[in-house]
Specification:
- The chain is an alpha+beta fold.
- It has a single domain, classed as Alpha-D-phosphohexomutase, C-terminal domain (TATA-Binding Protein), CATH 3.30.310.50.
- It is 52% helix and 27% strand.
- It contains two helices and three strands.
- A three-stranded antiparallel beta sheet has the order 1-3-2, with helices on one face.
- A hairpin with a 2-residue loop joins β2 (38-44) and β3.
- α1 (15-30) packs across α2.
- The longest helix is centred in the last third of the chain and has 28 residues, at 57-84.
- The relative contact order is 0.23.
């Protein structure tokens, strides 16, 4: 079976922010149905690494967009919460 794969590295301002984003997104990636592909998230210092594999290119594009948007939304929530304290 042919599959499409992407590895994306998102850099955060600090390892603490990266860990918060990782912790926010990790549960959702573990629940991805196997028929839709595979997605994993890992953390290396202040970088969040997404490893995505899907059976078709359209699914890969949609997954990349979704995870990048979720990471951005998580970052914005973290920054907003920190500035309100």
């Amino acid at each position: 079976m042919k599959s499409y794969r992407a590895k994306i590295r998102v850099s955060a301002k600090s390892s603490r922010v990266a860990a918060s984003i990782h912790d926010a997104l990790a549960p959702d990636l573990k629940r991805l149905p196997k028929t839709e592909g595979r997605a994993a998230i890992s953390l290396k210092n202040s970088d969040i690494i997404f490893d995505i594999e899907t059976p078709d290119i359209a699914s890969l594009r949609a997954s990349i967009n979704s995870y990048i948007r979720l990471a951005d939304a998580s970052y914005k929530c973290i920054v907003t919460a920190a500035s309100n304290n």
